[in-house]
Amino acid sequence: MKQFKLNIINREKTGRGVARRLRAKGHIPACVYSKGNSRSISLSAVEFRDLKRSIGGGAVLIELVDDKGETALTSIQEIQRNAVKNCINHIDFLEVARGESFVAHVPVHLIGEADALGVKEGGMIDHKTHEVEIRCRPSKLPDHIEVDVKDLIVGAAIHISDLPVHDGVEYLGTPIQVIVSCQPPTVAVEEVIEETDEETVEVAADEVPASKVKDDVAAEGDAAE
Question: CATH 2.170.120.20: which residues of the chain?
Fold first, then answer.
């Protein structure tokens, strides 16, 4: 379990205008939720950016330290981003109690992709689920879940029920949910368009026996009479 610290400021004022002014000053509005309660906070966008770099994408616990020196052990539940401005609009933290189970999202890392049996057969690894929901105590929180795919053959898949066992960790969600699969090779099908060869038709007409042509002309003459 990795644990980091982050300085925060408690705030009483809320609303879009307040949040907009905080972001303009280089702060991120956020909330801390704990057993039916919540409190509004703000934090430095620069400090949070540096924290995310240190975390490196793994699941961690963050100890929030407010302006009064009080602390709260939390996990990040949601980060709301502004896709246009490429910035963070809001963060939700969940306070966790030491020794009590809580729900977290943990990234799934694949190993052995290049050596997978299916890849050697021309197949392609399809990583469908990049993180899984788990329940565990803070001390048992894994940084990530590692999945070895070297034995994965074409047409086979690894589901939540196949994930490795971690002490004190319960996987949530549907057991049959696919984590990763090996898709068969893609074969390009060339569309064949049949065209009439006018020259062939003309040649075929030229090959009609002369006797047949005479008979057809005679038949037409009799019909006219």
Answer: 103-183
Task: Give the residue among 92, 103, 91, 95 at the shortest CA–CA distance from 59.
Answer: 103
pLDDT (tens digit per residue) in 137-159: 999 999 999 999 999 999 999 99
Whether 199 and 205 have beta carbons less than 8 Å apart is answered as no
Within a 10 A sphere around the Cβ of 151, how many other Cβ atoms? 12
- Calculated CA dihedral for residues 180, 58, 91, 25, nearest 10 degrees: -130
pLDDT at res. 191: 53
CA 218-220-223 angle, to 5 degrees, is 110
CATH architecture group of domain 3-96: Beta Barrel (2.40)
Mean pLDDT computed over 86-115: 94
Look up the CATH number of domain 103-183: 2.170.120.20
Within the chain, all domains assigned CATH 2.40.240.10 are found at: 3-96
